[in-house]
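Practice problem: predict the structure.
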Amino acid sequence: MTTEINILIADDHTMFVDGMDSILSGEADFVVVGRSYDGPSVLDFLRNHKVDLVLLDVNLPGMNGIEVCKEITSQYPDVKVLAISMFNEESFVSEILNNGAKGYILKNTGREELLKAIRTVAGGNSYFSDEVTEIIMKGLMNKRKSSARTGSFIPRLSRREKEVLKLITREFTTQEIADNLFISLKTVESHRASLLSKLNARNSAGLVRIAMENHLLDD
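Answer:
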């Protein structure tokens, strides 16, 4: 008798979720038990339903996939997480793996590999597509080379700078950051400029990458 795998699809693009649902529902051992279109709804769903595996997009609104994965690992250790994303940067891959994901595949992955990845992760093993494995290996090599060349360090950030940086990684706008922290737009821009300078980043995307690579938002 085939064991059924209860799957929650978490992605903010309805068309993508429809496609995943169509593919997975055609498999005898897969049951799509739910859909979530933002981070908080993933955790809400898990409170009331039996889920074996979450097919989790890294870039979710409300609460990004990395934060969601961390909460799933903490609150629901029996639930497996397979990350799926269009992001192929090493920082995103390593960060979500460090927070409990058992696998990572890209959104251009073919149908057969998708099915294989889900069954592998649901069975308790890790799965990375060839491209993701190459990304991880290149990242490790680059870090070793970088540390060998220079003893670079990340400057200390103030509590407020960390708060602003965390909201930037969650894709908050300048106005939303100001409203959330009860500070002025000018103050937000000042903190952002300080972060760009301290972390030697060119833009917000660079701030996100550096924050994740160096675990700057860890408590």
